[in-house]
Amino acid sequence: MELPKRFDKKERYFLDIFFQGRARMVNHHKEVSPYNAFKSEKAAELREGMWYNSKALNGTHDSTVGKGVNAPELHREYYDEYANLNDTENAALVQRFTENCNTTKIRRATPKAHVQDVVNTVRNMQMLMTTLSNRVGIEGTFVIVRNNTDFNMLLQWHFTSKLERYMPLAVRRCWDTGEAGGMLEAVAIAGCDTINLLRTAPQKAAFAKGEIRDSIHKMLVEITGNPNAVMIYVYKE
Fold this sequence. Notes:
The chain is mostly helical. The protein has helices at 3-7, 11-20, 34-58, 71-83, 87-103, 111-135, 167-171, 177-189, 201-224; strands at residues 141-144, 156-159.
């Protein structure tokens, strides 16, 4: 390839652009260096110390306190302290940093943030499926619906190529993508428990009877070893 030499980049850089669309996964795992762990811990200590000092002097919390800590200042002021650490202390730094990253969960609580998170994730999924189709040759679909009423969002359907045209043949009836997605969303909000969708007592009773009948049939097949075994029910009034 001439591009790596021309732009002073590795070949993998251009292969990722051509075949993966530079799609980035949400969780990007890489090795943590002791120095990065040291800077992160030192910055947290400085922010906490500056906050308490400001509160002690002023009696109030200033939201701007702690925002002046940056990487160049940390390097100038504390690199000698890092250089004096031994291998054991460096390993402990990396371990504390990794544990902190694994235990820290950011919850985006606002409805707008939820929708933005879904949209960004769907865009990445579409990009991954498109590039996978170009590289390997696959077709597929996915749908994303909400499972609670804390926020509102549109149904997220995605079909590769013209796969959606096959759906009426698959279900042998008129296919409505919006209607199918709405039904899936209703089931998800109901806790993926179909009995919660039944409104009247007779409907719930009929559903429960069907579940009991299926369980009895399954056990009967296991006991007899005959997959065609049938239980004959006698109704008495």
